[in-house]
Structure to design on (161 residues):
């Protein structure tokens, strides 16, 4: 198998893994601690791959996530497009941040995602979520260094550019 095919399979495989890991059921007590996996994986690929991630891809992944999760169609597509847009816009700066600053930037992006989700759900007529709803971005930011280093190591072992 040539390098380009391995790279494509690795890219698509990680995004499918992100969508499927979003579906893992957790007990009600642990549900607020569930990170937004598609956002984390798209953030990684936005920072590490210049030409693979676009707003169109984020929109398509978001639509699939909407269909799999059973939420309002376009909700996660909007959220992922906003995250990817900001990540691509500031990619040249974010790539050279030390890990602790990059983690804080990811936290800011995930908090921005929660605010956007709150706005969408408020317009949909849902009540305000409990305070524990805000835990997920902090869990995602705490997992970010480990996810980033794991994905980077696997990418280097597969010699994917």
């Amino acid at each position: 198998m040539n390098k380009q095919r391995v790279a494509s399979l690795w890219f698509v495989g990680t995004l499918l893994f992100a969508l499927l890991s979003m579906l893992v059921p957790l007990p009600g007590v642990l549900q607020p601690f569930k990170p937004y996996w598609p956002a984390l994986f798209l953030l990684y690929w936005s920072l590490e791959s210049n030409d693979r991630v676009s707003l169109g891809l984020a929109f398509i992944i978001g639509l699939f996530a909407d269909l799999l999760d059973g939420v309002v169609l376009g909700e996660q597509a909007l959220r992922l497009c906003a995250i990817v847009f900001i990540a691509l816009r500031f990619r040249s700066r974010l790539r050279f941040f030390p890990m602790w600053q990059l983690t804080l930037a990811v936290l800011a992006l995930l908090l921005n995602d929660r605010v956007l989700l709150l706005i969408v759900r408020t317009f949909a007529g849902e009540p305000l979520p409990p305070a524990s709803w805000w835990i997920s971005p902090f869990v995602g930011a705490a997992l970010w260094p480990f996810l980033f280093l794991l994905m980077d190591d696997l990418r280097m072992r597969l010699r994917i550019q």
Q: What stands out?
A: Helices lie at 3-22, 37-48, 55-69, 75-89, 91-94, 99-123, 135-157.
